[in-house]
Amino acid sequence: MKWSELFTSSVGKKWIMGLTGIFLVLFLVVHVGLNACIFAMDGGVMFNKAAHFMGSNAVPRILEVGLFAGIILHMLQGWALELSNRAARKKGYAVPMGNKGSKWYSRSMGLLGTLLFLFLVMHISHFWVPSRITGLEPVLIDGKEYHNLYGEMLQVFQGNLAVVLLYVLGCFALAWHLLHGFQSAFRTLGLTNGRYLALVESAGVLFSVIIPLVFALMPVCMYMGWIK
Amino acid sequence: MQHYTMNLTLKVWRQKNASDKGHFETYPVKNISSEMSFLEMIDVLNEQLIKEGKEPIAFDHDCREGICGMCSMYINGRPHGPWQHNTTCQLHMRAYQDGDTIVVEPWRANAFPVVKDLMVDRSAFDRIIQAGGYISVNTGNAVDANSTPVEKEKADEAFAAAACIGCGACVAACKNSSAMLFVGAKVSHLALLPQGAPERKNRAMNMVAQMDREGFGACTNTGACEAVCPKGISIENIARLNREYMMAGLTEDK
Predict the structure, then answer these.
(1) Which fold has domain B5-116?
(2) I need a labelling partner for A19 at 20 to 30 A (CA). Which of A26, A169, B27, B28 fits?
C-alpha cells in the first residue's frame, strides 16, 4: 500500500481528524493558560508580557504555522468527510432514528465545526489580525514598549453585548464539539484498553466543560467590569 | 404476560425493483396475536394481500431464530425494532398495543441497494469477507484444538466479536452508512486469536479497501451501531480495526 492510500482511505482520513484534533486540544490548553493571565488583575501587565513572548519568540511563531496548517487540515478534511458520509445514503428514512442510540452532538460535529469556523473568522479578525498585521497601540511596562493586546480585549468586549454573546455561543459550540471529539479522537487512534478509555472519557468531559467555561468567563468578566 | 389481540395500521415501503422509485402503502391488519413474531404478522398481512389478488410484501428471512442475520427491517425509526439486542424475527407483537401505527422501511445505504420492497442486497458484506475475513489453512488433518494456547479473556473477546451475524443493522443505523462495526468485528475476532495473526496486516488493509470500494461511509464514533446491534457487538472493535489498519499500513514491507 502506498503512503497516499494509507491516509486517503476512510480509516486514514479519520486518523488525520484524530491527530489534528488532539493537536488542537493541546493548543487550547496553551491558549486558555496564556489568556488566563488576564485574571491576574494587574491591568493586563502579565497578559501583555505573555502575548509579547508568544509573538516574538521563534518557537511559538513556528508552532503558529503548524497551528494554522492543523486547523485548515482539520476543517477541510472534516467537511470532505461530512459530505462523503452524507452522500453514502442518497435515500433517507421516513422516520429518522434521532437520539435512539446516539447523542445529538456526536451526530452534529460538522455543524458544530462549521459554527466554530465562523467564530474563528470573527475571533481572528478581532485579535490576531491587529496584533500581527494591522498593529496595536503600544503600552509601557517597566519602561519597555509592549503591544497593548489587553487594551484591545477591553475595547472589543466592554459595552459590546452582541460580541460577548457571540463569544459565549462560540464557547458552547466548542464544548459540544469537544464532548464528542475528545474521546472519539482516541478511539479513532485505536485506543481499546479499558482503563485508559475510562480515563480518556472522564478527562474529555472535564476538559469540554472547564476549557470553554474559562474562555467564556473572559469576555463576560470584561463586559461586566469585573476585570478592568 | 397476558395474551391479547390487536388491530394495527402498517405503513410499508413498496418498491417493485431496484430501478422503481418506490412509495409507502398503508395496510390495516386485524386480530394480531401478542404472541406472534413481527415476521409472522407480516406473513398474515401477506396472506391477506394474496387473497385480495395483490402482490405480497417481499422481505428477507431465513432461520427466524435470531442467528442467521437475514431479517432486516427498519421499524419505526430503528433497525430491528424497539427491543435491545434483538432481531426483527425475534421481535414479538407484545411490543405493540392495539391501534398502533408501525412504519416499516428497508435498510437505507447506497451500498445496500433495495432489491424489492423490504429486501436489500447485502452482498457488499460478502465481498468484504472475501477480501480478508478468513485464515488460510493447509489441507490435512485438523490439529488438536489444545495445541495452540489461547488466553481465556482473548478467546472470550474474540467470541464476542465473532457473534456478529452480518445483518447490516449497524450500517442501517449509522448516519454515515458506515460498515465499521461489521468490519471491526470481523477483523477483531481473527486478530485476537493466534490463528489470525499471520495474515493480520493484509486482512485489515484489504478489508478496509474493499469496504471503501463498496461505498460505505467513514466512522464518526456516534455509537448508533452498537446500540442497535442484535448481538451487542462493542464499538471497541472499531477502535481495534483503526489500530490494526494503521499498524499494518505503517509497518508493511512495500
Answers:
(1) Ubiquitin-like (UB roll) (3.10.20)
(2) A169
